[in-house]
Every structure is written in C-alpha cells, then in structure tokens.
Amino acid sequence: MRLNPNKSQVIAKTVIWSAAILVLLLLFSIILYILSKGIPNITWQFLTQIPSDMGRSGGILSCIVGTLSVTLVATLVATPLGVGTAFYLTEYTRESTITKIIRFSAESLAGIPSIVYGLFGFIFFVIYLKLGWSILSGGLTLAVMILPTIIRTSEEAIRTVPPIYREVSFSLGGTKWQTMIKVLIPTALPGIATGIILGIGRCVAETAAVILTAGSALRMPLSLFSPTRTMAVHFYILAREGISLERAYGTAALLIILILLINIGANLLVNRFMAKGH
Amino acid sequence: METTTGQSKISIRNLHFYYNKNEVIKALNLEVRANEILAVFGPANSGTTTLLRTLNRMSDLAAKVRIEGEIFLDGKNIHSPEISITELRRKVGMVFEVPTPLPMSIFDNIAYGPRLSGIKNKAALEEIVEKSLQMAVLWDEVKDRLHSSGMRLSGGQQQRLCIARILALQPEVILLDRPCSGLDPVSTSKIEESLRTLKEEFTIIIVPHNVQQAGRVADRVAFLLMGDLIEEGLAADVFANPKEKRTSDYITGRFG
Amino acid sequence: MKKFGERIPQSIFFIIALSALSALALITVFIFIEGVPLIAKVGFFNFIFGMKWAPSLGQYGIFPMIVGTVLVTLGAIILGVPVALCCSIFLAEFAPRKLSNLVRPAIQLLAGIPSVVYGFWGLIFIVPAIRNYLGGPGLSILAGSIILAIMILPTVISISEVSILALPPLLKEGAFALGATHWQTIRSVLLPAAKSGILASIILGIGRAVGETMAVIMVLGNAVALPNSILDPARTLTTNIGIEMGYASGEHQQALFATGIVLLVIIMILNSVAQYAIRRK
Fold it and tell me: Which of A9, B39, B125, B237 could join B214 via S-S bond, C-beta 3.0 to 4.6 A?
C-alpha cells in the first residue's frame, strides 16, 4: 500500500515533532521535579552545616567542599595535560604513527565506564600509590576521566584557527612556540575553555568513580589526603538507604543548579567563540 | 625609465624545487638588485608563488619539499645552518595574497613582529608603529583608532596594515604575492604608489596580479612559465621588445 | 640558539602528549593484574558462562550479569534510538534556527544530569508505573531500559545530527530538483547518506548503556538470578561491581576486577567498531 507522499510527509513530520517534544518534556519534568522538591530544602543551614547523624540531620557543607575540592584537583591536573596534548597533536607533528596512537588512546579512554575508572582509581591511587581514600585519589581518577574530553575539544578549537594566522606569524619570524602562545592560544581559548567547563560538569556529576576513590566519609576534609563524600555520592547514599528524603532532594537540586550554571557558562562561551567569526 | 645598476641583493643559482617528486621550478638563475622592484610574472602554476616562498624559506613549512641549488642573500647562503630562519624571515618580509590581519588591534598587529624579537619598551613600540603605518600610507586613516580591531578595516586598508606589519621589522627585502587581488582600483593604486616610495629603502619582489600591474610598478621583470625562467630584463625592454616568442604571446594575451 | 629553544618545548609537549597513552596503559595493566588470576583460577568458561554468582561459596559465574547487560542495553536501543533519530532529523531538517539553538543546549543539559538523579527519578516514577500497570516488582529490566534509553539520547542525537548536517547541500537540492518531498528526501537520500555516522552514534550509545552503573543500580533490582522476562529484576556487569565493591575483599574483589576486564574488552570492541564505521565514510 503506497501512501500519498504528501500524506506520509505529514505523518512523518508529526512523529518527528512529537519525538522532539517528548524529549523536551522529559527533560523539563525531571529537572522541574527535582528542583521543586529540592529547592525548599536548600536553606542556609543546609549549605553551611556538616551532616550529622549519618546524614539524617544537618546540612551538606562537607559534601559541597568535597565536590569542589575533587573537581579542582581533577581540573588542575587534566587541563595542562589535555591542552598540551592537543597542541602536540596539532602543532608539532605531521600525522604519524605516534599521533594515531595518542588519538586512539584518548578515544578509548573516553569510552571506559566510570565504574572501571573507579576500580582503577581504587587499585592504583588508593592502594598501590598508598594515597588512601582521599580527595587526591578521587581528583586524580577524575582527571584521567575528563582528559579525553579536554583533549578532544582543545584539538578541535585549535584546528579551527585559520592556518593563515600560523603562516603570518612564521613569516614575521615567530617560532612555533611563540606562534602558539601569542596567536593560537588566545584565538582558540573560548573553545578550550568550553572543554574544561564540560569536564568540570562531568566531575560534579560523577558518582561511581568517586565513591571508590574518595570514599564516603562525612567529616569535613582537612587536607588533600582526607577522605570525603561528594554531593553526588551523598545523594546516592541518602536516596538508596532512604535516610532523609528532604536532604536527598536538596542535594539533588543543588547538583542540578550547579550543572545548569556550568552548562549555561559553556554555551555562552561557545556563542562568544562563534561571534568572533570562526 | 631608470636603469638599475645596484648591487646584487639576492642571487638565485641553479634552483630546482621539487614538491612531491614534481619539479615545480627548473634550473632557475636570477639576480635581484638592491633597491629595485622586480616583478616575477607568469600564468598560474608556473612557480611564481613557490619562488617567492623559497626566498624566505616559507617553503620549509610544507612536507614533501626538496630544494637543490643555492640562494644567496647579500652573499650568504640562506640555507646554511649559521643563518637563523627567524632572522631571515625578519629580513625578508612577505605580504600574502589575502589580507590577513591577526585577530588583535591595529597596534598589536604591527607591534607583533617587534615584540617577537624582544622589543618591549612602550615608547619604542609606539614609534615603530607610527613610522611603519606612515610608510605604508595608512597612518592618517587609522591614527585615531590604533587600538580597535585590525579586522574591521576595509580590504585595502587591511593589506596596507600587512605591509606596515612587515615594515615594523625593518626588513631589507619585501616579497608581495599578488597583493592587490580582490582590491578595488583606488586601493590598488595606493599600494602601488607606496611601493615606488618604499623601493628607495628596500628591495621589492612582487608577483603581480596581471601583466599590466607589472608594467606599472616594476623596474625589472622575470617571466616564468611552467617552472622555467623564459626571459628577464628591464621592464621597458621586455614589454616593448620581448626576445622570446612565448613571452610576447603571454604578454599580448594569446595564452593565459 | 633558536633551534635549541624550540627543541625543549617540543620534548616537553611530547611527554605531556604521552599522558593519554600512559593512562590507558596503566588502567589496562592494573585491572588485568587484579582480575586475570581469578579468571585463571575459576576457569575462563566457568567465569563467563557460569550461572551462579555466589562469592561466599566461591562461585563466580557472571553469565546472568552478561544477560542482564545485554537485555537492558537492547531495550535501551530499541526504545531510545528511534526517538533519538527523530530528534536528530528534527534538529537538522525541521527546526527553525532559533528553535534548534534552544533545543540543542537543552539536549546537552540532558547529558549533564548526574546518573544518580536519573536513577532516583526512575525509582520514583518509572518503577511504580511498571509495577502498577505491567506487574512484577517494578524494579526490572524494563525500568533499566527506559532510564538508559533516556540517558543515551544526547549521544545518539548529537552525533547523528552532525552526520546529517555534514552532508553536502547538493545532495538535498538534487533530490528536491527531482520533485521529492522533504520527507522523501530525508528518508531516501539523507539518511542513507548519513548511515555510517548514525551507525557510529548508535554504537557509542550502546557503549554508554553498557557502561552505565548508578542509574541502573537504583532501578534494576539487584537480583543475581537469571532473569526470565523484562519485568524481572536483574544485575548487569556494572551494577554487580557497583553494589559489591563496597564490601568485597580478597578473591571476591578480584572477581569484580575480572568483571571489569570483561567490561573493558566489550568497550574496546565497541569503540573499534564505531571508529571503523566513522572511517568508512
């Protein structure tokens, strides 16, 4: 039975628009639900007190600190490594075996499940390097996890810098290094920053890798070697054990708000990147 | 028409240029005299741009490139390991076909080269910027907006910016690769006019946009066809009385 | 002098660039070192095809988990890919520019939501719905598939959309010039032309589904036995590790690492297939 092509077009359009609307509805319902249940619980005490009684009361200050410190460590380690790798891939070499191997490694790292990162972080940082359950272990594990993201977005950002800029800089007597610092980095910066921000977003949201490396201690962490519980882990434990539904919602809402801010930040940067005429 | 009897600035001896096993320039011998404007012209793919790029070793940047023969600047072989490439490129400046201001202010564009070579003093840089812009006949038009973006200038202004940019490095030779393609006649004549002034201080080699431009600006010309140097000499002589039939055919437009 | 100044940064950057390779090597080595002895001890076939997972009894068969992973992933693909494809067509072909500039970041946002939040939401809404309308405990493979379908949407949508947008405009114009309607053009020209990119996006989506842990833990039900239907609770390879790693030790822990090896191998195969599909363009 052959449908009139115009009829089938109408049907197709309806289905497609419905799918898009469905996805948007899903997104909004999830976010609105969490925010509506959670925001009322985000009180001043919630933000400034440490959890007590296994999380049944008190706030989540130590978890906030945990998330921020683990994310900070991860970003500080992964950014120079990631951006540096991107520069190496685009600037110093023609395509060769070694660049293919490096790129293959980065692509592979991107696909590894977070629980496997957790296993690795546990056996390597916690046990082998004797760092114990700590901010350092968690942060370093997350650094490896977000490394491929930063490499990929940085490389793309540098590749969109018009090659003629490089030529101009060379013709004025610039070395590869000077060209990189003075022309390529500033031009590619918004794209690179976007990658870093996306990496930060991943760190904030990550649970499986963190719970096995940073631990789940509720105390306020005092040093890089202290164990800590991030907000995502805290939410998981509260929700799973049914410890405190209000605090669970509050934690989730705070996470969503953080992620919303991070995504908006990244999008603003992308738009600025585009506006520059790349 | 003045004759140039100046010293030899650049000597090209038996140059062969291979790209990916293709011989793009064949057994080229050419002298460029100091303080003259030499136009290297010829149909597309004759090696004119390639020749220009060998003179400041920009050709080194491409892969699969092989060069035989020698190129001397002031008597020194530019490929000898004692000569630093960055120094060479400051002495032999290049203006590209497409005006390409760097993504920064007019001031920073021109100060880019000097800063690379270590000049940091603000007053010195300001002086260099003003002098270069004046030599490129752009100063009056931009002196009030030196810190606005170089990308907001018109095409002709951008190209003069690029000229000013290399002048800031106080080069000895200026290479121009079809600098006026895509520019309106007014901008073109402004640039050609500035070249006539500039040649008093610099040696200029230009790949012209067309034969007419060579006739307007050049003291001497060289005709390249498919990598071979067919004829060279004083512009007046070559255009009025070409020695080779191929030269006269190209000049009169029998082939292009 | 100048040449020397250029060598140092080049060597530094080379060492930096090896970081990705070193990380991959370290991960592979350490996971394998922990897990291989156990696979050797239990026997490869007993490990992969064993039906019983009972660490306290020294039994380490992961076949039920493999089945769980396969079923949950399959369900996620069946539910999620059609919706994702429709959305990517929507973004590439139907949405006006202003709308797509809003919808695209919205889908990126979907990707940023923590998986634990997805799991929790599924626990609140999807699980009871299944229990009330379809039967069973609600904590089920179906619940896992639904949640995973939602979670892989951003991956499949964005890569498919890029593949469609990357097609030369002449392709579309040629079809229109022959009198095809928009939908006919999409169906018969654009989608087949973007086939390899779309396929790659699906494979990457599969990879994400296979690797997801936290959301699945919360809705899958944690039953170690072989599931009989999609309404049954189950365990996947990832949830197995996620649930038990907190208290496993010794041989038990090694078995979890061995499960990790299996996951690594699956992902490597999937990634290679995806890379191959992309390159085949």
Answer: B39
C30 in contact with chain A, both atoms CB, cutoff 8 A: yes
Residue pointed to by tokens 């992933």: C73
A122 in a domain, yes or no?
yes
Residue A14 lies in a domain: no
Q: What is the CATH number of the domain that holds A146?
A: 1.10.3720.10
Expressed as residue numbers, the domain containing A168 is 44-275
Residue A226: which region, alpha, beta or left (left: phi > 0; alpha: psi -120 to 50)? Answer: beta
Residue partners of B140: CB distance under 8 A and separation at least 6: none
CA dihedral over A222, A228, A230, A236, signed as positive or negative: negative
**What is the spatial distance between Cα B70 and Cα B80, in angstroms, rounded to a whole number?**
10
Number of domains forming the structure of chain A: 1
CA dihedral of A136, A138, A140, A143, whole degrees rounded to 10? -140
Distance CA A8, CA A13 (A): 8
Asked, for residue A21, whether it belongs to a domain, the answer is: no
Neighbours of chain C (3+ CB pairs under 8 A): A, B
Q: Where are the beta strands (DSSP E) in C224-268?
A: none
pLDDT tier at A276, thresholds 50, 70, 90? low
Give this prediction's pTM. Answer: 0.82
Span C84-138, pLDDT tens digits: 999 999 998 888 888 888 888 888 888 889 999 999 999 999 999 999 998 888 8
How far apart are alpha carbons C146 and C121 in whole angstroms? 11
pLDDT in tens, B20-38: 888 889 889 999 998 999 9
Write out pLDDT tens, residues B103-150.
888 999 999 988 888 888 999 999 999 999 998 888 988 888 988 888
Q: Is B114 near chain A, with CB under 8 Å?
A: no
Query: Which member of C17, C117, C218 has the closest CB to residue A88?
Result: C17
CA distance B255 to chain A (A): 31
**Top-tier CATH class for B8-251:** alpha beta
Per the CB < 8 Å rule, is A112 touching C267?
Answer: yes
Contact at CB, B116 and A174, closer than 8 angstroms: yes
Whether residue A213 contacts residue A141, with contact meaning beta carbons closer than 8 Å, is answered with: yes
Residue the block writes with tokens 């140059």: B15
Task: Report the distance separating Cα B94 and Cα B172, nearest Å.
Answer: 11
